Amino acid sequence: MSLIDAESLSPTERTDAAAIATVADYVALLKPRVMSLVVFTALTGMAVAPGHIHPVLGLVAILSIAIGAGASGALNMWYDADIDRVMTRTRGRPVPAGRVAPEEALGFGLFLSVASVVVLGLAVNWAAASLLAFTIFFYVVVYTIGLKRRTPQNIVIGGAAGAFPPVVGWLAVTGAPSLDACLLFAIIFIWTPPHFWALALYKSGDYARAGVPMLPVVAGRETTRRHILGYSLVLVPLALAPVATGLAGPVYGVVAGIAGAIFLGLAVTLARVADAEADAAARRLFAFSILYLFLLFATLLAESGIGLVR
Predict the structure, then answer these.
(1) Model confidence at 19, in pLDDT bands (50, 70, 90)?
(2) What's the half-sphere exposure (Cβ side, CA atoms, 13 Å) at 201?
(3) Structural domain span for residue 38
(4) How many C-alpha atoms does 82 have within 13 Å on its Cβ side?
(5) Could you report the per-residue pLDDT of 2-13, keeping only the tens digit for each?
(6) Considering its fold, how many domains does the chain have in total?
(7) CA 139 from chain center: how many Å?
């Protein structure tokens, strides 16, 4: 079914169309790419936390965090179906395309939210479960419903939702937060704005049509490029801080230093290039920002696995 066909359906016809939803559509509701990043950072938080968790309980914790992240994605797609239908990047999602009825996405997301929190609390501990519940609430209510359509600072404040998973993983092991757990949170929190603003630069037309006040739409491209550089200047040294606290070892220091220099170089280039070349520069920064965060957390995970730290 095409997007145009889906938009022209009556409510009854939409429900009939949703009946043909496949398993793949429900998997898509979970935002599997976002979920994979959440799982990876949460696993890293568990691995580097002091203490020990039984492997079975660790698996339950990771599955609960993954399901909670997927629930957030489903609820986000339910609420944002109207603007997703306008944006080229998102109009093929199951709800705006008419393959899943909005009420089914809502019910699916609510059920998974409750199940993920209850299972994590009963099987592991309620500290981790409480933070998982708050993370889901923050992403859906604070970011999606409260901030996304109202302020260009949406991704700055809302980025906290994506920064909580390693802390949830840490709490699953220790039951209590620490400075190092907060440091993992801070790295992702500061990484999020330049990552998403780079995307918003070359997708600004989409956001403008949907009425989402992303920074390039509200403040202009030049201001956005300066903000990306400013956050990058904070992010790169912050990402080296785990070496100073003992959370990370020398290998991490080398990887974070080299990757940080590349990240900063791309941000400087984006800030300086002519506007006609800015989209290409933004695409390069956006692509590398994903690799950058992966390298940081993969190195932390590897160092923990081979005993270079703790």
Answers:
(1) low
(2) 29
(3) 7-177
(4) 6
(5) 333 334 344 443
(6) 2
(7) 9
Q: What is the C-alpha R_g of the chain?
A: 20
Tokens 């998973």: give the residue. 165
CB atoms within 10 A of CB 6: 19
- Indicate if 165 and 236 belong to the same structural domain: no
Look at residues 144, 177, 210 and tell me which one is the last residue of a structural domain.
177
The per-residue pLDDT for range 132-165, each reduced to its tens digit, is 999 999 999 999 999 999 999 999 999 999 999 9
Which amino acid is located at 246 in the chain?
G
- Long-range contacts from 184-189, C-beta under 8 angstroms, 24+ separation: 184/41, 184/44, 184/45, 184/48, 184/242, 185/160, 186/238, 187/163, 187/235, 187/238, 187/239, 187/293, 187/296, 188/41, 188/159, 188/162, 188/163, 188/293, 189/159, 189/160, 189/163
Residue 125 φ then ψ, to 5°: -160, 160
Contacts 24+ apart (CB under 8 A), 128-133: 128/61, 128/168, 128/169, 128/171, 128/172, 128/175, 129/64, 131/164, 131/167, 131/168, 131/171, 132/64, 132/65, 132/68, 132/168
pTM: 0.91
Convert 63-83 to b/e letters by CB count within 10 Å (16 or more is b).
Answer: ebbbbbbbbbbbbbbbbbbeb
